[in-house]
Design a protein that fits this description.
heterodimer; B: about 625 residues; mainly alpha; two-stranded antiparallel sheet; globular
Chain lengths: ~100, ~625
């Protein structure tokens, strides 16, 4: 086995996931929130592939492929929403998009 | 043989279906003739089966015909099957033959009724139900017929649905019958538990333990008692007079009430395993024949007197079947079908001619205007009392002598009851006769009498009455047990008389003598009291009240069952439904709204809060796993 051990990869993935999660929690720009979501998904992908290599099991890589497909569709929907918001000249600030308040 | 049986069963059902589907597209008369034809076709089928059966060897006269397997669960199997054997052939002939005459009579009687088509659809259905009951090839088919008979009697008793009393009577009949259906079903469950089968052959040959046999017989007896209106489930029968008169004739003569006697004869191997219960059936019959005879003495409605006489005569049949003389019970069923249908139909002629009046105090002297009705009624009445050579004599006396043949103390009690019943029969029947038929017509009769184009009724009414008068007079000659007994021999392969219940010739002679003398004395007393008026009617207010209130059975059931049930229902309505159930709706609504008000604060609309909840949830799950490890 070449390169660093699986722990390093998982650590990187955890850091990436944390950054993504923080981004979703803190940032108010819709586009940045979407970006952060992508980051979290890819952190997951990294962990999946690292474990796949570690355990010599192809399943993790297949999962990663599925996650990519889902990420792509999610971006489609998310960007579509952003475009729609923009067309209606609505704010892109997620804090101001709070009509669902109970 | 089986072809005839299927034809017999399905023709009336076809009639019902055709009349129902065609509805108002056919005339009333067409509906009436469809019903009549199909029932007579059924009679043709029954005759076919009978003739074919007679040409066979005694041993091969019983045949089960299966259309298909209807229910199957593991090795428990019930087929849609008919049993054609000497017993069911006799019943098929009675049901479809007498039934056909009654349907024909209905054409005249129901003429002009608004809903004639519905009537004829129901009445063919009634005949079909009864045929299913008697032809059913296993206990489940029998139970289905049993239930359908209850249903169709409900429909016909309540036929005049705009009369509240008719609707009440229909409900009463249905509830009483449902009680019997339930005990019968319970008996069948016990049989299934013990033999895993409902076929006659298996169940009749099974050896049940004492308790099981007693319970099975008791359940069957419950069904028989309810359907045949014996004490203590007899109260529905007099009320059932609310239906049209031909329906009364059908219920009392050809179908329905005879089902209980048929049931005992059919399932006699089960009853013989529980001899105590079988004797209980005989005791019930003996008690009923006396009680019904006493109540009949004070009735003022012509149909109710005849109704109580039916209860009394069915009591004789139960007595016969209960002591083990099945063929005597069945023979009395046969002759009774003729003379009771005759009595109801002659009474119907009188009622029809007097604008629906049924009170015998108003009908005095109607015989002068309706001689044909008068003589036919007399034939029926003499047959009912059992005066030779009329048919009742040949069929009633063997039942009483079978009771004597038992030789035990209860046998003699039954014998005394039977003879006393003969006296009562003579008394109440000829009370009716002397009050209604002879003498000068009363002003009421003169005023309301209207004939039918110069005759006493439409030909469709007179012809069946004439035929039945002949049958009621001569049908008894079929068998005179001391000397010839083709009927008993015919039924022997299915329901042989128990050895203990075969009377000696001497017993037959002195029983006949006693019964005939008792009947004649009854007639004589009726003549002295109601015609000559040499004997005054004893005041005896206690007894009169007792009889007029039908021994307080209705009162008792009202107190024991109806009132507590009604009180419970009122209590539940006031103290449970209103405060608890009805209040629950608004309360539940308010509670939901309040909870919603609390929970809605969680919905901030801010994306970050939702994400925080998700993250916190995920963290909590991870933590939980870590701790659990």
């Amino acid at each position: 086995m070449l390169g660093p051990g699986v722990a390093w990869y998982v650590a990187v993935a955890a850091v990436l996931f944390g950054i993504g999660a923080l981004g979703v929690l803190i940032r108010r720009n819709t586009l940045v929130v979407l970006l952060s979501l992508e980051l979290m998904l890819n952190a997951g992908n990294l962990a999946l592939i690292a474990f796949s290599r570690h355990f010599h099991n192809g399943a993790g890589q297949i999962f990663a492929l599925a996650v990519m497909a889902i990420a792509a569709s999610e971006v489609c929907v998310g960007l579509g929403l952003v475009v729609a918001l923009n067309r209606r000249r609505l704010s892109l600030d997620v804090d101001r998009l709070s009509e669902l308040r109970g | 043989m089986t072809g005839g049986a299927w034809l017999c069963l399905l023709a009336p059902l076809g009639g019902t279906i055709v009349i129902t589907l065609l509805g108002t597209r056919i005339s009333r008369l067409a509906a009436a003739w469809i019903a009549t034809t199909t029932v007579f076709v059924a009679f043709g089928g029954a005759v076919w089966a009978f003739v074919d059966m007679q040409s066979r060897q005694v041993g091969s006269r019983s045949e089960i015909t299966t259309a298909w397997t209807w229910l199957q669960s593991g090795n428990f199997k019930v087929g849609l099957e008919l049993l054609v054997d000497p017993l069911s052939a006799v019943m098929m002939l009675i049901v479809s033959g007498v039934g056909g005459l009654i349907v024909l009579y209905s054409i005249g009687y129901m003429d002009g009724d608004e809903e004639e088509r519905r009537y004829f659809a129901y009445i063919s259905f009634f005949v079909f139900s009864m045929l299913l009951l008697v032809e059913g090839g296993n206990l489940l088919m029998l139970l289905i017929g049993w239930g359908l008979v209850g249903l169709s009697s409900y429909l016909l008793i309540g036929f005049w649905h705009d009369r509240p009393s008719a609707v009440q009577a229909a409900k009463k009949a249905f509830v009483m019958n449902a009680l019997g259906d339930a005990t019968m079903a319970l008996a069948f469950f016990i049989l299934i538990a013990h033999t895993n089968s409902l076929s006659f052959a298996t169940d009749f040959n099974a050896h049940l333990s004492g308790t099981a046999a007693n319970f099975v017989a008791l359940g069957l007896l419950g069904g028989a008692v309810a359907k045949s209106a014996q004490i203590p489930l007899q109260t529905w029968l007099p009320d059932a007079m609310e239906g049209p008169t031909p329906v009364s004739a059908l219920i009392h003569a050809a179908t329905m009430v005879t089902a209980g006697v048929y049931l005992i004869a059919r399932t006699h191997p089960l009853f013989e395993q529980a001899r105590t219960i079988e004797l209980l059936a005989a005791g019930t019959g003996a008690l009923t024949l006396l009680v019904a005879g006493l109540i009949a003495l004070v009735q003022t409605d012509i149909k109710k007197v005849i109704a109580y006489s039916t209860m009394s005569q069915i009591g004789y049949m139960f007595l016969g079947a209960g002591v083990g003389a099945y063929s005597s019970g069945m023979f009395h069923l046969l002759t009774h079908a003729f003379f009771k249908a005759l009595l109801f139909m002659t009474a119907g002629l009188a009622i029809h001619a007097i604008a629906g009046e049924q009170d015998i105090r108003k009908l005095r002297g109607i015989g002068r205007l309706m001689p044909f009705t008068k003589w036919c009624f007399l034939a029926g009445a003499l047959a009912l009392v059992g005066i030779p050579p009329f048919s009742g004599f040949f069929s009633k006396d063997p039942i009483i002598s079978s009771a004597a043949a038992l030789g035990t103390w209860y046998g003699w009690i039954f014998w005394v009851c039977g003879v006393a019943g003969a006296f009562l029969t003579g008394l109440y029947t000829f009370r009716l006769w002397f009050l209604v038929f002879p003498g000068e017509p009363s002003p009421f009769v003169r005023e309301h009498y209207h004939d039918h184009h110069g005759r006493e009724g439409a030909w469709t009414m007179l012809v069946p009455v004439g035929i039945l008068a002949v049958l009621a007079t001569f049908a008894g000659w079929l068998q005179w047990t001391p000397h010839w007994d083709p009927f008993t021999k015919w039924l022997e392969p299915v329901a042989p008389t128990l050895a203990a219940a075969v009377p000696t010739t001497t017993q037959e002679y002195y029983t006949s003598a006693a019964a005939v003398v008792a009947g004649l004395v009854g007639i004589g007393v009726a003549w002295a009291v109601y015609s000559r008026r040499t004997i005054a009617i004893p005041a005896a207010p206690f007894w009169r009240r007792l009889f007029e209130n039908k021994f307080y059975f209705d009162w008792l059931y009202d107190r024991i069952f109806y009132r507590p049930a009604a009180a419970t229902a009122t209590f539940l309505l006031r103290d449970f439904e209103d405060p608890v159930i009805l209040q629950a709706g608004p309360d539940l609504g308010e509670a939901t709204i309040e909870t919603g008000g609390l929970v809605r604060r969680l919905q901030t609309g801010l994306l970050r809060t939702y994400v925080l909840f998700v993250a916190a949830g995920a963290a909590a799950v991870v933590l939980a796993f870590l701790i659990a490890k």
